[in-house]
Amino acid sequence: MARTQRHLRAQQRVQTLIARDQPLEETLKAICRIIEAQVPGGIASIMLCDEARLRLERLYSVNLPQAYCDAVEGVAIGPENGACGRAAYIRDFVICADIARDPRWNGYHELAAQHGLHACWSYPVTSSSAQVLGTFAIYYHKPGEPTRSDRRRVIEAVELVSLAVERERNRRALKENEQRYRSMFTYHPDAVFSLDLKGYFTTANAACSSVTGYPLEQLIGLHFSKLAQPNDRERIESLYGAVDKGEAFRYTVTIRHREGRSVYLDVTNLPIVVNDRVIGFYGIAKDMTERHRQETELRILQRSVEASINGIVITDARQPDNPIIYVNEAFERITGYGRDEVLGHNCRFLQGSETDAEAMAQLRQAITGQYELNVTLCNYRKDGSPFWNNLYLSPVRDGKGSVTHFIGIQHDISERKSYEAKLSYHASHDALTGLANRSLFEDHLMHDVLLAQRHGCHLAVLFLDLDDFKPINDSLGHEVGDQILIQAAQRLGEELDPGDTLARFGSDEFVILLPELEREEEAIRLVERLLARVRRPYRVGEHELYIGASVGIAFLQEELESPVELIQQADMAMYRAKQKGRNAWECFTSDINDEVNERMALRNDLQEAIEAENFELHYQPLLGARSGQVVGFEALVRWKHPIKGYLSPALFIPLAEDTGQIGAISEWVLRQACRDMCRLAAEGYGHFRVSVNLSPLQFRRANFLGNLQQVLQETGLSADYLELELTEGILMTDTAAAIETLHCLRDMGVEVSIDDFGTGFSSLSYLKQLPIGKIKIDRSFVCDVTTNRHDSAIVQGIISMAHHLGLIVVAEGIEQAQQRDFLAAHGCDVFQGFFFARPMPLEKLQDYLKQRAAVLGQMADTTTPVDDEALASDPSWPDDKHQ
Ligand SMILES: Nc1nc2c(ncn2[C@@H]2O[C@@H]3COP(=O)(O)O[C@H]4[C@@H](O)[C@H](n5cnc6c(=O)[nH]c(N)nc65)O[C@@H]4COP(=O)(O)O[C@H]3[C@H]2O)c(=O)[nH]1
């Protein structure tokens, strides 16, 4: 009983050792002692399996000799390996009653005998899962077998051993696990942490500290929201709901580092589940700041490349033939090739027949030499159409500096190129007709003159000006004018040879270069053909129109200073041709040159006179045929040339008309005439009407009426005292507009007379439509009126017809009393001419008026008619020197 009690106590002690996780050796040795106390003479030992369960190592015993222990430790588990090796092998009780004779102890007999060990009973120790953990053995110093109670005790001891070993193994496994976990936690390069359910940090590793910048002691107990950006907090809190349900989740968040910078984290949260209850969250936060920055940069870069309006091609320089690995949308748009069609191919499919070989060579060199290049080359789209590609090629290098790729940026400059081409075309061509312009013509001229001089050929320049083009353009509009110019250009072109150059210089000026003439006559024959072609009718819309041309011809002569001189010579000759009449041509000669030079000099002098207002105004009286009274004056401009003296207006007025200088002269004349009339009235000479000659250019000016009104206003002359003299020619072009202007003049109170009447081509019947009050019979009819019966008949006809129309008739150029008498006899109303008075300056006119008044005063007594001839030839009167 006492023995049993002792045994139970010993067992409890062992169980306490086990429960308290005392070292295994202590527990196992305690078990050995218990069993040794129960089986007298027995020596207990416990051996445990190695990890692989192939050997028995770690021998625990209190009384086995150490040398024996050392010798058997590590014995292999096997059927013939002593009691323990076999027990572990067969997983059953092995009884070796007499070791010395037991063959299973072969190899160990001597060892056992040395230590006086003669019997051994061994029992396998197994785990709760039936794994062999080791063996429990009892040795005896004499042979013998166990009794039943011995067996029972051994089994009890084995159970205790199993319990202790298994417990110790579990504890070790647990510790190992914990260490593993801790290692993972501690050494994890990412921030690893745990939060409680309220979101406070409960644990955090070192990485967590470096990611957040907070020392661990400050981090523990900190609420996660202290780190998250305000706009992220709510989102993350809502995610934690998922963790509550036991689910893991992942999100990205930007936190604020303790130093203030933003840290971009990729966080995975997992629930901490204990006893089926979530008690918090684990978190693993990966610092993605750098990667995020790179990704953002990359994304922006990718978007920019994608969205670029320039085509972008990337090729792989490491692969044979440098194949395309990327093209953007713009490349597809520009070339018409889809991405799939080009990837893997070399870019050469973009080349074609017009691709510049030199540009290609540069491109190849840049690829071989691995340097940047900017080159413009002609590429081809998928549909075969060419485009201009301004290509930037640059090599892309890796970290070691080796070129891995090439990037090509295409800029489709086709529009710019075509614009440039258009610009250069327009710079050298006339937009309306498509003919060469002056600059291109001059280029050809330089070149062809050089060749002609070298080869001794004849060369000619023709200057062709359309006759009567301006009136058509003015009256029918520019569209009609343009059509005529186009048709004329076409006709001229059709007559020329391929080597000739046809250019348009001005509105209706065409210039032709004939560089390869065998004889000069060829040019003349061509000009005749050209004139004939130009003369043919032009059909424009409903109009059938006729125009002519005047041509000047200049041949290449030896004494030419510059080729351009030929154009000027042809121009001068054309001017002479124009003077000859319509549809004429003229060759340049040196006298034309002189004439033109003189004209040029005169033009310049005239300009100086205009600027200095270096003109005088003379007045020629007009006398009533019946009353003999002065009824008005004609204002006639005089220019005293500094060298040539007084020049006839018949000389410089047409020049001024040609050069446009007439505008300024006319305005001066009008203003001066109005002023002088006001002065005469103011100085008591009476109110006289002054006739002013009107130039066609002045009449057609847009602001003609406005200007007139302004002059009248400024000078204070009443419109009743102004008369404008128009030639028939003015009324011939754009008659409707001219008549409208005449009506306006009449409304203003200004009188209008037709000057040089009878010299125009038009029928007299148009007179009845005109709101005019007077006609002036041209001097040429008056001159021979008494000697030539035709002129006499014409003059009589004009007077009669004019009177029927209610018009006053003025006869100008009366030089003789017979002429006066004839005209008076046939009812002419007003006389003008040297017979009565020459044109004179205002001061002389005042004298004239005074004298007339004096003579008239005397006549009142005598009733003798005024001797106009005597007055006119009074030596004190001005001699109109220019006449
Ligand atoms: N042989 C001869 N001649 C006579 C006689 N009586 C007058 N004359 C001249 O005949 C011309 C009359 O002027 P016109 O026919 O309008 O012809 C004018 C007119 O068309 C133009 N002219 C003169 N002054 C002006 C002006 O201020 N403006 C414009 N637009 N043209 C003007 O120049 C032309 C010539 O003017 P002038 O040389 O001043 O010549 C004047 C005058 O001096 C005569 O009995 N015998």
From TrEMBL:
Annotated GGDEF domain residues: 457-590
Coiled coil ranges: none
First and last residue of the signal peptide: none
Alphabetical list of PROSITE patterns matching this protein: EAL (PS50883), GGDEF (PS50887), PAC (PS50113), PAS (PS50112)
Transmembrane segment boundaries: none
InterPro entries membership: Biofilm_reg_signaling, Diguanyl_cyclase/Pdiesterase, EAL_dom, EAL_sf, GAF, GAF-like_dom_sf, GGDEF_dom, Nucleotide_cyclase
Domain PAS as annotated: residue spans: 177-247, 297-370
Domain (EAL): residue spans on this chain: 599-853
Boundaries of every PAC domain copy: 249-300, 371-425
PANTHER family membership: BIOFILM ARCHITECTURE MAINTENANCE PROTEIN MBAA, DIGUANYLATE CYCLASE DGCP
Name this protein carries in UniProt: EAL domain-containing protein
UniProt lineage: Bacteria, Pseudomonadati, Pseudomonadota, Gammaproteobacteria, Oceanospirillales
